């Protein structure tokens, strides 16, 4: 069981971080799903080993992944989407 837990942590943790750094929002939004799926394994491993500092960090990370779940999947969106402001290189003044 311990090897399975360690394998899941070793694969899913970095995968979630990698997804979160994508340029594509469609890819970024999956980071919180993968991150949340790995959190029970983090909780189990740190609880069993008595690493209370890492356990607290895993709780904070879980809260961050829940925030991502809210932002990317659950939050209501305006019907026409959210507008952004873009500055082109030519628009900068010296």
Automatic annotation (TrEMBL):
Residue intervals passing through the bilayer: 51-70
Highest rank taxon of the organism: Bacteria
Keywords per UniProt: Membrane, Transmembrane, Transmembrane helix
Keyword Membrane: yes
Name of the protein in its database record: Uncharacterized protein
Native source species: Paenacidovorax caeni
